[in-house]
Amino acid sequence: MKKILFISDFFYDEVLGGAELNDKILINFLSQSFNIENIKSIKVQNTDVDRADFIIVSNFVQLSHTMVQKIQREARYLIYEHDHKYVDTRDPSTFVGYKIPEKNITNKNFYSNARAVVVLSSICAEILKNNIPNTNVINIGCSLWDSADLDYIEDLFCKASKQNRQGVCVLKSDNAIKNTTKAIEYCEANGLTPVTPIRHPEYREFLRIMSKFETFVFIPKVLETFSRVCAEAKMLGVHLITNKNKVGFCSEDISELQGLDLIQQIKNRNKNAFKKFKSIILSSLECKKENVTVILNCYRRPEYLKEQVKAIREQSVSPKQIWVWVNHHEDSEGFDFTSLGVDRVIKSNFNWKYFGRFSIAMLAQTEYVAMFDDDTIPGPKWFENCLETMYKFNGILGGAGVKLRHSIYQGHNRVGWSSLNDDVEEVDLVGHAWFFKKEWLKYIWLEEPYTYENGEDIHFSYCAQKYGNIRTFCPPHPRNRQELHSSIKGYEYGVDEKASSHVSRHEKFYLERDSAVQHSIGNGWKTCKMRGI
């Protein structure tokens, strides 16, 4: 059974809070399918992270910076967001239009690198997407309840509906952000008396007490990510008075419902939320399925093929098949391709240059295609790196990213193995090593290439963006984790006189690429610079 590490500052047996109750219910559900290990954030060690197949991070104020960095770099994880740990004030509602200044955003990369950040309400999803745009935000639109507790709430509602409800209650809490004093002041100022502060250590007894009242007043100081107590009041048929701009529940359309209608909607959303959590975890664990066809390209460097095949066979995510596309050249005529032990060798008696391999790739019968230049030896976790990236960034991936600075190719900035990048970075085009969904190949043929002599990488990213709204990204290439890199011998193998971009051919090579960029921009390609990226 797969091991899931559940990290939180506190658990329900220590703190009787809404976040801790949510976590308890989620843990109980996931325990039916996975081996769940709970661990307090302050106690997390390297070995805990290394042993986990997947990690769920709940509240993590006490998680050390070192562990945050390790999880971010090395683990598959999701963040179950309870209280805005992406902003140093812990309250985005203090900023006009919820626009958080960059200096106030915290844990940015931790959020953006998570498989998903699960939030409880529409307003929280909107805030997070707007302030950390690359985050994969999933809104479940509810807190979590045990099904037996929802049945209990339904029973309380039915009983209370037959009784004469009276009085006003407020939440009696020692937590300053719950703002009990303000709620009492509001009641007194508006003639809502007598006011009864309520609390009880037993959850169901608290609900029973609340169900006796006609009105519940709650005036929190900070933006509540959902506010289960507000939802519970309405499910019980108690009239709710609150500052709606501070309550995530109120950003959901179901907040207009009451009683049985709301209870049914909460039940439905809970069921869907549980499915979503399980789906995120399973899809992450399934990344190692053989679902990749590799296409190697041979022209003048057959001597590197055995090393390429070995590096691909040793990937942590095994490919389904390896093909070799051979463009005609006398340098490879005497090479024994049967010695490679690959699944397909496709020889062409004509040099189709850069585009031939993209044509044969249309015959792949896997979801993904990985393609390599003949001088590119990947690190053993390159495919894993790509699948991790693809889960969040649905786009063409590659090892040598290019961000255009002008409306020509020359003068661009490099991203990837040659310059290193710790995080996923959006670029205009990629080369040397591609990783993409096979279905996207159709876009490259929707327009005749500007030239067949050069620029297949330009044409692919341009057409994919124009016709499929598919963007292009470079996965992380951290300095000290070469196993994730797309190319580990680029400086050794890619600079000989056989290289298309060799200095002896610079002028023609780069003029062709300049023209291909100009053509693509002129026909609708929106570069990163044009889009403010």
Question: Please, could you describe this protein's structure?
Answer:
This protein has 533 residues and is of the alpha/beta class. It has 3 domains: 137 residues, Glycogen Phosphorylase B (Rossmann fold, 3-Layer(aba) Sandwich), CATH 3.40.50; 114 residues, Rossmann fold (3-Layer(aba) Sandwich); 234 residues, Spore Coat Polysaccharide Biosynthesis Protein SpsA, Chain A (Alpha-Beta Complex), CATH 3.90.550.10. 33% of the residues lie in helices and 18% in strands. It is built from 17 helices and 19 strands. The strands form 3 sheets. Strands 11, 12, 13, 14, 15, 16, 17, 18 and 19 form a 9-stranded mixed β-sheet that branches. A 6-stranded parallel β-sheet has the order 2-1-3-4-5-6, with helices on both faces. Strands 8-7-9-10 form a 4-stranded parallel β-sheet, sandwiched between helices. Strand 7, helix 7 and strand 8 form a beta-alpha-beta unit. Helix 6 packs parallel to helix 8, helix 6 packs antiparallel against helix 10 and helix 15 runs parallel beside helix 17. The longest helix is centred in the middle third of the chain and has 27 residues. The chain is elongated, with a radius of gyration of 28 Å. The two termini are 42 Å apart. The model has no long low-confidence stretch (mean pLDDT 92).
